[in-house]
Sequence to fold (109 residues):
Amino acid sequence: MHELSITQSVVDAVIEHAGESRVISVRLTVGRLSGVVPDAMRFCFDLLIDGTALAGARLDIEEPAGRAACGSCGREFTLTDHILLCPCGSAEVTVLAGRELKITSLEVA
Ligand SMILES: [Zn+2]
Fold:
């Protein structure tokens, strides 16, 4: 479960940024194509923040869908999974969005 190590690095980064402040919530953007399962991250987050400066903080996860462009027909389309195929059948596809995994905001007391 790689969500555990990813979530650990998120928690570490948040603690470093927040310093002495109490963190109320952490907002993440986890693209649908990032390969990370948001529910698993929520589970790990609750485990990892226990006993830290982040204890009690809420985790909000935005899950933007993927976007891709087809090199054959030129159309842009939404990707909801890892099957990188254009509706026209071409696999000549460039992923434009959906692989992001970042902390978008922190709410501190
Ligand atoms: Zn196409």
